[in-house]
Amino acid sequence: MHQHKIKLGIFGFGVVGQGLYQTIKQTKGLQVEVIKICVKNKSKKRLADKKLLTFNKSEILNNKEINVIVELTNDTEFAFEIVKEAIKRGKAVVTANKKMVAGHQKEIFDLQQKFHVPVLYEASSCGSIPIIRNLEEYYDNDSINAVEGIFNGATNYILTKIFDDNKSYSKALKEAQEKGFAETEPNMDVGGYDSKYKLCIIITHVFGVFVKPEQIFNYGIEKISDFDIKIAKEKNCKIKLIAFTRKIGNEIFGAVFPTFVKPDNILYSLENEYNGVVVEGAFSEKQFFLGKGAGSYPTGSAVLSDISALRYGYKYEYKKYFQDLNLKFKDDFLVEVYARSEHKNSIRKNDFASISEEYKSADNHFIIGKIRFSKLTTSSWIRKPHVNVLITPENKLENLN
Ligand SMILES: NC(=O)c1ccc[n+]([C@@H]2O[C@H](COP(=O)([O-])OP(=O)(O)OC[C@H]3O[C@@H](n4cnc5c(N)ncnc54)[C@H](OP(=O)(O)O)[C@@H]3O)[C@@H](O)[C@H]2O)c1
């Protein structure tokens, strides 16, 4: 692969595929050539040369000239099949598909070790922010204590419109969809799934532990009410959907949760579709990465950066995994939350280890207190439509031991 010309076979020509195609066309001096693009729908009009298009995956996979496969479809299972087939044929892979990578991390890792073929996926985690390569290269010997951030542009856009422009949730969501920040199926974004997939991938490169999406609890922003927003403003906070992972001793915690954020937190001023990642190293202390987490060109440029890196033989070395840090993912810790209900007595007070604030009115009742995370996530009340839960500003996690 060193210094050879890169000949691409691309799967998918949607938002990211077209962004990549335009970025390649507009970047001078690239040793990159697009050989074929595989898509699904035969009746769609395309902004690419007809000769490049195919509807048959084998035309790319069996083409010996193609040395790099770029996987940019929105079909998770199809994407994984393509990645497996490509690796077995010795073709390097670049993908932006967070759901596929997060769901199959260990298999993708094993295949890379077995066939000595690189798979790069920078664009899958926070779009244009080069977080994976930084974790792999820059922080390879620094012990990281925590990573937290806003990993989803659509929800950040919605929360910005709600907080700064006093828009309703449904209006803000519609606007995010119209601008192309939110998926057509909004649950992926607003339910916190997209952030969770990115968190899984980031945990691998921060702590060297492969965590499956099912192991990480995600809570969305759908139930944030006018009352919650009023309380946030009274407490001089904004609400942000935060993905976090933290190491305490030999245990790692992680979750995606709407969180009250104070002005002294750098994520407070991160607005609209921007993503931000705070890395807290044991020695380097806090560092902050900011960038657009979605969109055609920002994501296309991250994909192109991975393609270029292949020219120099770049591959992830999964350094933290091989350092054998002996860390374990645990979904139980003590956390302080605000739990609000429109119905009286829906939230079980007895589930809390301690309560620091309680409020009751005719329409709303809330408790702020510390609770075991496992008790919270398995409680009978957390999923009720009239109940909403947020993590309090400091997000002070405590080990149960
Ligand atoms: N959009 C973003 O800002 C963004 C940011 C970071 C990561 N990502 C990830 O990047 C990937 C692509 O996202 P996108 O927004 O570009 O999606 P998209 O606009 O919906 O485009 C998906 C493309 O995949 C093609 N496709 C689907 N199934 C296929 C199949 N079986 N065979 C061949 N082609 C198939 C579609 O073909 P047709 O054109 O024929 O329908 C379409 O061109 C996703 O995994 C997404 O999570 C997206």
Question: Can you describe what's shown?
Answer:
- With 401 residues, the chain is an alpha/beta fold.
- The chain is 32% helix and 26% strand.
- The chain is built from 14 helices and 17 strands.
- The longest helix is centred in the middle third of the chain and has 15 residues, at 193-207.
- It is globular.
- Bound molecules: NADP nicotinamide-adenine-dinucleotide phosphate.
- NADP nicotinamide-adenine-dinucleotide phosphate binds next to α1.
Topology:
Elements (H helix, E strand, L loop, with lengths): L5 E6 L3 H12 L5 E7 L14 E2 L3 H4 L6 E4 L4 H13 L3 E4 L2 H6 L1 H11 L3 E2 L10 H7 L6 E7 L2 H12 L4 H10 L8 H4 L2 H15 L9 E2 L7 H9 L3 E11 L2 E11 L12 E8 L3 E8 L3 H15 L8 H4 L5 E2 L4 E8 L10 E9 L4 E8 H5 L9 E5 L10
Helix pairs in contact: 1-12, 3-5, 6-10, 7-8
Bound molecules: NADP nicotinamide-adenine-dinucleotide phosphate.
Brief write-up:
With 401 residues, this protein is of the alpha/beta class. Helices cover 32% and strands 26% of the residues. 44% of the residues are buried.
CATH homologous superfamily heading of the domain at 6-129 and 296-315: NAD(P)-binding Rossmann-like Domain
Level-2 CATH architecture of the domain at 6-129 and 296-315 = 3-Layer(aba) Sandwich
Provide a count of the helices. 14
What global shape is seen?
globular
Could you name the ranges where pLDDT drops below 50 across 5 or more consecutive residues? none
At the fold tier of CATH, the topology name of the domain at 6-129 and 296-315 is: Rossmann fold
Distinct ligands: NADP nicotinamide-adenine-dinucleotide phosphate
What's the average pLDDT?
93
Q: What is the distance, rounded to the nearest whole angstrom, between the alpha carbons of the first and last residues?
A: 49 Å
Helix residue percentage: 25-40%
Text of the CATH class of the domain at 6-129 and 296-315? Alpha Beta
How much strand content do the residues show?
25-35%
User: How can the largest sheet be summarized?
Assistant: 7 strands, mixed
Strand runs, count:
17
Radius of gyration: 22 Å
SS class: alpha/beta
